[in-house]
Hints:
It contains 4 helices and 5 strands, in the order H-E-H-E-E-H-E-E-H. By secondary structure, the protein is an alpha+beta fold. The protein has a 5-stranded antiparallel β-sheet. The C terminus is likely disordered.
Amino acid sequence: MDVTWENEFRKRMVTFEGQRPPKEGEVSVSIKLRVISGCFHRDHSPKAYGIIDKHLSAPTQRKPEFAYLEHESGPEVIVYLALATAGATLAKSVLDLIAAIIRARSEGIGQGDRPDEPLELIVRRVDSNDRFIEETVLRVGHTEPVDTALIEAKLRQALARIQRDHELLPKRTDPQPTTGPHAPTRRRQGRKH
């Protein structure tokens, strides 16, 4: 078990929540775009990151409260998920950013970025019982068309499951281990960043 990675993830989530604590009905989630092997960072994908930078700095781009982080394996967006009876919702601008990152990856590879392994779209969070939850939502190859409606639908399905899990798990009052053999996890796979 990669306890160090999970601890780093928990620290990123705490830092995000410390910058602006969640409002009533909000939970923080991480939306990660990770290559299945190799790298997806500025050194190997300068064309893609140029496109992502333009998207992030567009004057018409409405900036929701989110954290955009770059990792060797790909970008991560930490954002608040609004929980409501009608379902979990993300800002349209966040959905647009996720689609723009996937599109930038494809366009960057077309312009010479390497390597060109598929991306996985992953949703993850730490629940109210300090359990790590991760769900792979979608895998997209660089030659596949970017279907924004499919990305949104898959994200909404995963977020609905997270909402359901969040509502079904009451806050524990007894201390829970965050490291060691009794630290709870779900859906672990491969390397993490």
